[in-house]
Write a structure and sequence with these properties.
single chain, 133 residues, mainly alpha, 4 helices, elongated
Amino acid sequence: MELTLATPAILFSTVSLLMIAFTNRYLALASLIRDLHDKYKIDKTDKMVILQIRNLQKRIRLIRNIQFIAISSLLLSAICMFLIFLGKLQTAAWFFAGGLLMQIVALSMSVLEITMSMNALKIELSDMEEVLK
């Protein structure tokens, strides 16, 4: 495989899309947490609110980690491009492989976050189980 400057540049658009998507998810979750916290202040015994906040906290941490890994992937890709520019192709290939691997990890973690989102919806709708069946 020939590694050119265009090869690691492919990751730039993917990372940008990931960052936009997960920044929006982060902002939406933060808003939900604020709303649920207001509900909690009114009724501190509502277990549903507590379960939802726990789930949202885990998802926020996961999104932060996804963003960190995606940015690290972008950094490795930029270093790879610089190494190609310097003619250090073997080292550049290792950095590119690291960037790809981090991209795979970030995407895998996003699947986990989507699964957690589905679980949050189950918690939200749990009081309607009899009606939905």
